[in-house]
Amino acid sequence: MKDKPFAGVGLNNWGIKINPPYPYCEYRYENKRIAKDFKEGIVETSYLLVGAECGFPALAAFLAWLGYYYVAACKLVKKLRRTELFYIPVGIVGGLSAVYLQSTLEWVMKQQVNFIQMMMLFAALSILFKYCQKFASGEVEVSA
Q: Dihedral through CA 87, CA 91, CA 94, CA 97, nearest 10?
């Protein structure tokens, strides 16, 4: 991210750039390489991977996008606290907390199944927000 802070090395290019002949891996090969055709793997966090591939502006946008849904889920916990729907946003807050924290250690958000499930949680939050808007306007009743 220090080398190309604005644009990064390109989407999905980190796996290429971490290997020779690129300079991002030179410190690893000062003494001896494991094998002539050895390739380094991607062992980055989701956040650092986005920053390295897309730059700081994309990382900021990514964090804002994730933060929006986290804050939305927390607000829904408060809005729905005395309803039958209370445990849905509570579960989503817990799930997002786990995914966001685990993504500081590895790139779980780039795994297809995890990403699809996260999008389903975001969709559920959107539906709950629409429901809360209808409830506030008196269109829908919620039992306590």
A: -120
